Amino acid sequence: MYNAFFKRIFDIIVSVLSIIILSPIFIAIPIMIKLESQGPIFFKQRRIGKDAEEFLIFKYRSMRIDTPNVATDKLTHPEQYVTKVGKFLRKTSLDEIPQLFNIIKGDMSIVGPRPALFNQYNLIEEREKVKVNSIKPGLTGYAQIKGRDLISDEEKVAYDLFYLNKISFIYDVKLIMKTFISVVKSEGVKS
Hints:
two-stranded antiparallel ribbon; two-stranded parallel sheet; mainly alpha
């Protein structure tokens, strides 16, 4: 049975192997970020995790340091804030790979609902109503492959609930494979 213990073991194994395989990228990206712009390499942001507890998510910085701290889809002209390197990182989802450390730390899982920003009150509330916040958020999830930035909060919650009711090892592996295909095709990326 694929319970929380086995899911956690799977998360750790996949995260450690991914960090080893992607180690050249972990070296190249900080250099690219620093060559283009001033500011930190990493971006930390308050997100909502399991049981609606806050944690700090790690990402490579893809936007200017004066960007308002809201979800990208809530910005009027998000493209004006994204750096050139950031555009590439976001399109390829490479800005997300530092979250492998969030997974090892135990804040996140490989697969689960994407963690809401601390100020996405409607999304948090709707997830709470259907118990989606009872599981760890993920690096990827069903909503990610069903539209990512292009779907409404209501659709995200429906997809998250679908995942919650279908969690299994096979389903997680299937979603990881679908995510890889979606990333290669740059599907669902708004900016």
